[in-house]
């Protein structure tokens, strides 16, 4: 009985060692050389980790599916190797940004497009935009801009007009030139962050809104349904204050997430 158990133990150990060797060989095969036709054909069908972003694996099937979906959008003159590397690196960044969104408890945006290729094309930008909106709304990361907005709000309470303050302080050329007055705008043409902020606003009310572009103090002057196809229009005035530092912040945060690549590209 003891002899049988010993033999069984050796068999299990040998199987574990063999599996380890196969895994190590597979990783070495993935990391060695360019993506050959044989590699691509196998990895499209057999899910295998091509990278770790933080503790989350990125699977070969996802990468090659994206590679195929974005092929029609490959820039003219870009060679295959550069294209593969670009898609791979962008996917790594996208996964890292997804982890940042989860860490900051920011909802990851759902694509507005039904076409799979367009979804893939925009997924990276969607996540970056969501992070930028979050960043621009953080007073701790943008203390100078938030203090400027607070000073402008206080000036209005002290009797300064919105129009005068916009003409003097808005950092967007059109609103500065027209004392903040943007006229009637189609609701469908507004940034989603602005449109959402106006949902519960009353005419004459002002509100501070962080968007992907920066910090806005908006004033609602009116609403109607005289837009295209009887769509809603909003008459807005704004004081726009630009943000800075997002790109450096994002690079720093992404660099904190360990990315291990198993695929040689």
Describe this structure in words.
It is a single chain. The protein is built from ten helices and seven strands. It has 265 residues and is α+β, with helices and mostly antiparallel strands. It has two domains: 119 residues, no CATH class; 102 residues, Chitinase A, domain 3 (Roll), CATH 3.10.50. It has a four-stranded antiparallel sheet. The protein has a three-stranded antiparallel sheet with strand order 2-1-7. A hairpin with an 8-residue loop joins strand 5 and strand 6. Helix 2 packs across helix 3. The longest helix has 30 residues.
Blueprint (SSEs and pairs):
Blueprint: H1 2-31, H2 37-45, E1 49-53, E2 56-59, H3 60-69, H4 80-103, H5 116-136, H6 143-157, H7 162-169, H8 173-177, E3 181-186, H9 192-197, E4 206-210, E5 214-224, E6 233-242, H10 246-255, E7 259-261
Antiparallel strand pairs: 1-2, 1-7, 3-6, 4-5, 5-6
List descriptors:
Chitinase A, domain 3, four-stranded antiparallel sheet, 2 domains, 265 residues, three-stranded antiparallel sheet, 10 helices, single chain, 52% helix, alpha+beta
Briefly say what this structure is.
The protein is about 50% helix and about 15% strand. It has about 260 residues and is of the alpha+beta class.
Structural class comes to: alpha+beta
Rg: 27 Å
**Average pLDDT reading:** 85
Oligomer: single chain
The proportion of residues forming helix, as a percent range, comes to 40-55%
Provide the number of structural domains: 2
Distance between the termini: 52 Å
Number of helices: 10
Overall, the morphology is elongated
